[in-house]
Amino acid sequence: MEETDQPGQIITIERHILEEQSSFPEATGTLTYLLYDIALVGKIIASKTSRAGLAEILGRTGDTNIQDEQVQKLDRFADATFFRMNDHTGRVAVMASEEHANILPIPEKYPAGKYVLLFDPLDGSSNIDYNISLGTIFSIYRKVSAGRGGLEDCLQKGRQLVAAGYLLYGTSTMLVYSAGLGVNGFTLDPTVGEFLLSHPAIRIPETPQYYSVNQGNEKYWSKGVREYTAWLQGMQPGSHSLSARYVGSLVADFHRTLLAGGVFYYPADSHDPRKPHGKLRLLYEAIPLAFLAEQAGGKGSDGSQDILDIQPQTLHQRIPFFVGSRDLVEQAETFIQKYG
Ligand code: FDP
């Protein structure tokens, strides 16, 4: 038995990341430090979200972001913190955030590093006013361009990912990540300010429990998506009969899908001209979560192909997204192929 597997052992995130690093003999430690930096950003954002009910940070700024959604103060804080904590370390070449139209270059006064950092600083922000779980999603790639880092570095396929993960600000704060060696989850112990390994080697359970979708949009769905949903509900012989759960906060819905088994989807709203490709973003949401799902034995798809094989075209591209238990995601593909 490995030292780390002994019952009662407390594994901090630092220790875990360092132990994983030893599996890569060529590693310089830069990725390790970058992951620590992200864990620290998560603690800072968590400390703010836990006070989100207080008047000081409630309310909207009045501006809209690149997606035409109202930006709330907490989003701004999370976005600025993520950037500021990573702009000067010499580990990152370029960043891109769901909150900004263009890439975020590293200021000239700081050295540019070898990694590319993409983030959705505060996902599910329409839930802030209702005290519902929020999340931060991040992806890390290697720089592929010759310069200090540009658009080309940010538009890489999911197959090129080095690491990805999310922070979930829920009843407790969690950090879940994968650097390609499976998925591990850490829970923040607020008394000591440390992330401790609470969910080692996460695998999506064989038996699925829930399907998760905004069924209020059903009138916009294609026949394939409607038939698939009926199948998930057990309305066809031999099909599953799953319960529905939908928070409307992607990280929370994905986290439950990962731990309980099932499928989350935000399909194309084919009959709604506002959302012909659904709502979720390929770069900031679908790719990192599809990577985590695959690392946990599941899959992510746009309904016809694996999300990780899709070449991103633009920073804010939206995509239909099905993710979770592999067989359920493949069933979605089958229904969409059959009925459209
Ligand atoms: P939000 O608008 O609150 O930021 O991508 C954004 C997102 O939330 C996801 O977190 C969530 O899964 C989805 O939108 C919810 O969209 P609907 O309200 O259309 O269901």
What bound compounds does this protein have?
Answer: 2,6-di-O-phosphono-beta-D-fructofuranose
Question: What's the helix count?
Answer: 8
Output the strand order for the largest sheet: 4-3-5-6-7-8-9-10
Overall spatial form: globular
What does the largest sheet look like? 8 strands, mixed
Overall description:
This protein is α+β, with helices and mostly antiparallel strands. The protein is 28% helix and 24% strand. It contains 8 helices and 15 strands. It has helices spanning 13-21, 30-49, 73-86, 151-154, 223-232, 250-260, 282-295, 326-339, and strands at 60-64, 70-72, 92-97, 104-105, 115-123, 134-142, 163-169, 173-178, 183-189, 194-202, 210-212, 243-244, 262-266, 299-301, 321-324. The strands form 3 sheets. The protein has an 8-stranded mixed beta sheet, sandwiched between helices. Strands 12-11-13-15-14 form a 5-stranded mixed beta sheet, sandwiched between helices. Strands 1-2 form a two-stranded antiparallel sheet. A hairpin with a 5-residue loop joins strand 1 and strand 2 (70-72). Helix 1 runs antiparallel to helix 2 and helix 2 packs antiparallel against helix 3. The structure holds 2,6-di-O-phosphono-beta-D-fructofuranose. 2,6-di-O-phosphono-beta-D-fructofuranose (FDP) binds next to helix 6.
